[in-house]
Automatic annotation (TrEMBL):
Gene Ontology molecular function: kinase activity
Protein name: Histidine kinase
Pfam families per the UniProt record, alphabetical: ODP
UniProt keywords, alphabetically: Kinase, Transferase
Gene3D superfamilies linked to this entry: Ribonuclease Z/Hydroxyacylglutathione hydrolase-like
Top-level division of the source organism's lineage: Bacteria
Length: 374
């Protein structure tokens, strides 16, 4: 897999990522000087095995692959652990650091147990770089976000927090660069709705982050954009309030049939306005967008029969995808008709529809899904 890119975030801290448009993977390399001649090199959440050749080259260019000292994974998923055995083969002095819960599963890769170090035996869950220094990594338990044994890692010296899937997201901003902006939020929200199990687990993790002193200035997730500045607190506050996993399933299952009626009423409206052939063609164009994400809706015999993610979020995404390249007048007609349809079924109107936008949200977003199964 080509086109792996590396970026220096601050001196000694690097992002290595595959710049896949819709759902990218992030790995981080922290190179900490212990003295004038020695550095401690820690690799966080390696890129998956399909990226291995170019990933190794990127590391080689930065520090030399043989100079990795520690390989850390937040949890057990193959998108960050599948490269660990081969990396250990190339980095003979490196050891593998993770939680015991994670090791219980990743030991299936036949990793030498002597090269495994469990987080849980570290005093106060801190890895000190030397006896005479306060420089250390702090391991912050974030259970069930989204894995039982997940730990975020805080490096106080740089005020950076490595969070794994927590605060990760699909790539939903149009602007270039590695840092999140306001448009990143919808990808973060959707990712958590799909992959985090409960609001209670998410709030516990957010509380743990809020107790860190000093508060992190950079959030380094495994997917999506790096979060910095005021957006750190802002996105944490928003995540604290959303329904995820079982919460939204329980809440919205009761309203799901009504949302499907909204979808189909709007589909009929679009067909009457633009013709059935044009609408189906537009939906087909949406459906062929490349993605690693699950479908949003299912269409059978010209009727929407299933919604796979939170219905309100699904509607906003499909609405914006559909409105691409329409005139401002047509966009406004569809927006007003959508609001009327939600009110018809006594459903809350999604916030994104309540105000007129000068351009479609998707004009600001990258298309992030293979959204429709037809």
């Amino acid at each position: 897999m080509a086109d792996i890119r590396s970026y220096e975030i601050v001196e000694g801290l690097y992002l290595i990522k595959n710049p896949q448009l819709f759902f990218n993977f992030n790995s981080y390399l922290l190179s900490c000087p212990l003295d004038q001649n020695i550095k401690l090199n820690i690799l966080f959440d390696p890129l998956p095995l399909r990226c291995f050749k170019d990933f190794v080259k990127a590391i080689d260019d930065l520090i030399g692959i043989e100079n990795i000292d520690i390989i850390y994974t937040n949890h057990q998923d193959p998108d960050l652990t599948s490269s660990v055995p081969a990396l250990l083969d190339l980095s003979k002095k490196a050891f593998y650091l993770t939680s015991q819960d994670t090791w219980r599963l990743t030991s299936g890769y036949n990793i030498d147990p002597d090269r495994f170090q469990p987080i849980e035996i570290l005093p106060n869950r801190k890895l000190k770089f030397s006896k005479d220094s306060d420089d250390c990594l702090q391991f912050i338990p974030t259970p069930f976000c989204h894995f039982r044994g997940a730990y975020a890692v805080y490096y106080p010296k740089l005020k950076v927090l490595f969070t794994g899937d927590l605060l990760g997201g699909a790539s939903t901003k149009k602007s270039e660069g590695i840092y999140a902006d306001e448009d990143s939020w919808i990808g973060i929200k959707l990712f958590h709705e799909v992959y985090m199990p409960t609001k209670e687990a998410l709030r516990l993790a957010i509380d743990q982050i809020g107790r860190l002193a000093p508060i992190p200035e950079l959030i380094l997730p495994q997917h999506g954009d790096i979060i910095k500045g005021d957006l750190v607190i802002e996105f944490l506050k928003r995540l604290n309030e959303i329904d995820v996993g079982l919460d939204y399933i329980k809440k919205e299952e009761r309203e799901k049939e009504l949302y499907i009626r909204v979808f189909n009423d709007m589909l009929d409206y679009a067909k009457s306005k633009y013709g059935e052939k044009a609408v189906i063609e537009k939906l087909n164009n949406i459906s062929i967008q490349m993605s690693n994400y699950p479908e949003i809706i299912k269409i059978e015999n010209g009727v929407i029969s299933e919604v796979y993610i939170p219905p309100a979020t699904a509607f906003v995404l499909i609405y914006d995808l559909f409105c691409q390249h329409l005139s401002e007048k047509d966009k406004e007609d569809i927006r007003l008709q959508s609001i009327a349809t939600f009110k018809k079924y006594n459903l809350s109107v999604p916030e994104e529809l309540l105000y007129k936008r000068s351009s479609s949200l998707v004009d600001k977003l990258r298309i992030i899904f293979n959204p429709i199964r037809i």
